[in-house]
Every structure is written in C-alpha cells, then in structure tokens.
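Quick one: structure for this chain?
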Amino acid sequence: MAVSTATRRGLQATGGSTGRTSRPFVVPLLFLGFILPLYFEVAGLQLSGYRIVLLVFFFPALIRWLDGSGGYYAPDFLVLGYAVWGALAIFYHHALWRWEYIGISFIETTSPYFIARWMIRDEHAFRTFVRWIFIAVLLMLPFSVHQFITDRSLILEIFSKIGNVYNIVQEEPRLGFYRAQGSMPHPILYGVFCSVAFSLAWYVLGYGKGFTYKVSRAGSVLLATFVSLSSGAWLAIAVQMALMTWKTVFSFLQKKWNLLLYLFAGLYIFLEIFANRPPAQLFAAYLTIKKSTAFNRIRIFTYSSDDILNNPIFGIGFNEWSRPRWMVGSVDNFWLVVALRYGLPSLIFIVSAIVMVFVILGRAQLSSRLDSYRLGYLFALSGFCIAAITVHVWDATSCLLMFLLGAGLWMADAKEESDQPQVEAKQHRTRRIRYTRFGPEGT
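Got it. Here's what it folds into:
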C-alpha cells in the first residue's frame, strides 16, 4: 500500500513533502527537546521540551501522512493500532480518571513516528537525523562523564536554577563508579538512548570515511553508553557489535542474515527443550551485571506472565500486578509492560510493526551507500529491541523508539541521491556546448 514510485519521486524532485525543504528545524528541535531536562505542569499534565514539539507538530505530521506523498506502509497502521488499543485499555480500566495519560501516551506513540515519516523521506534528511542524535549524545557526554566520576549531575543542577528538572538518581556504585543519567530521568534511559547512535554513527556518518573517523564517532557513543553502567544499554551496544562482526566475517555469503535467523531459532528451540529454565529466564540471568538483578527479573517474568494470561485483552492497566509483598512494583522489561498494561493485542501491534519494518527494508534493492545506511538503521533498531527485554523505557527514550520506527521506511523505495541529476546535468552541458568554425556557440 504505497503511492507509485513515479509520483513519490516526482514530489521529492520538486521539493514537495521531503525532509529537506519542509521545516528542517523540526528534527533538531525534537532532539534538543529530548535532552532538555526542564519541565512544567499545565492542568495536571507534565510538559517538557520534546512533548511541546510533539504536540505542536502532531496534526501537521498526520496531515502530511494522510496526503499519501510518503506512501502508506503496514507499520503506519500497526502503530496507529498500538496507540489506539493502549488508549482503549486505559479507558477500560480507569475511564477518564487517567485522561491526561491517555492523551499524552497517544501523542508520544504516534507523533514521533509520523514526524519521522514526514520529515525523513530521503537520504539527506536521514543523515540529518543521525547527525542530530549524535550531537545530542555529545552534548550530554561531558556532564555524564563528570557524574560517572563524582556522582554529581552538573547538568541537572544547572537547569534546576531555571525551573523543574528530573530528580538526580542516587544508586549504589557499580564497578567502583557512579551511574550517569545525562539529562534524563534515569541512567537506563540515558544509556539506551545513547546506544542507538552507535551503528548509525559507524555506517551513516562514517560512510566513505576512514577507520579513525568511524572509531572516533562510534567510540564517543560507546563511552556515553558505558558511563550509564546499565546492562540493558550495554546489551544494545553488544548486539550492534555482534551484527557488525557477523556482517564483516560472513560478507561472502549471500544469505548470511537468513543463516543468522536460522541459528537463533535453532538455539531457542534447543534451550526450550533441554534447558532447565525458559530461554527468557536464561537471557535475564546472563545478560545482567548483578546476579540479584537477574533473579529479580526472573521473578518479575514469572508473576507478570500470570497476570497477562489472566487478562489477555486489555491487560490490567495501572492496577497492581500480582507479586509477593516484598517485591517492588517495577517491571524491567518493556515488552512485558506493554502486554501487562494494555493486553496482548497491543504487544502484537507494536511487535508486528517492528517486524514489518525489517521485512520491508530487507526486500529493498539499494545501492552500496544506502545499503550501508540500512545496516546502521536496522542494527540500531535491533539493539534497542533486544535491550528492551531487560529494561523498561519511557519518556524521551520510548519516543525515540517510535521515531526510529518511522525514520527508515523511506528506504523501501529509495534512490541514491545526486546520481540521476548529475547524469542529466552532464547531458545538458553536452547538448549546450556546440562547436562551429567560429568557436563554441554562445561566445
């Protein structure tokens, strides 16, 4: 379900509906809003920098999607289904007592996705997005390294003199250092947010550059992620590194990604049959820094799964989930939270949207440069999704996931920039330079 290739390319050629000419300040505003720690309240609704951007550009982005210039893809409708079902689930359990959450949750789900669909429709806009997420990471990095060493968040202290800011998270040291949270509500959110830029910096910003250039960019992201001391964020980086290694080592194989999927499926089946615990529990046990955290995640999975199976349609909303009295109420698994809070249909919608992005882009025939962009994008999305098994994400970091989902669909029918215009320009010059016995025409 997409508008014709000729129609879309015609719009892009005339500057219509592309991220290059349509309000190019939106993406910088959004990413600066993501890392701005200030917020204020209006009628019980907490508004921060990125939420203001999402509210202001929600309808323009939706209208630009509805005009069909960017095409219609299955993930568009699945994301809408995810947002609508979540709103219905909260209304089912809490009626309008949670009206502010219903509204802002719908906006945070749909607005970043459709802003990305609107603003990112060519490789220039995509590079701009990657550049700005990298800038956001760099802006937070010095403050994060300082907090990592001293346990003081200078950025939050500075902005607290202006208005309301997120609380400084005080947790016990890990590996002899303190957990940095950047300008975000929690070190987990900061670490996962930064991790997304790793493979994007390598494959997009680093395309055509030397090894030193790539290492300096990706290394900065690696450092920013490391100082969060979050196992979930580290996992996101590890997944991206593993995929990058697989791509390099098995570059001679045409079906290397199919082989990787078969290996993972085989491993999962093997663990399901022969392991003494479900694969999900094994992942939780071995992908964490502290054993106590691993055991807690196993207990969370066990008890919350019972509630999901007992409430499969609309979940339990914000009601208490079943657990021993001594257990804390947090659920360190984004996908579990979705199913627990909104029901299994909501989880199916969002997972299906992600799978369809992989399927659609996997089938696209791209040039070498755009193929590099696709690798960076899909590796970043893979790292985020797998890390979300071990952590819950909210606030700006969950909005980043939705933005990321919408940011890559332009590649489904992309054409390498400048190739055709350069050929046409050359032909045009050739036609214009005519020689006579008096010299070039027009002299």
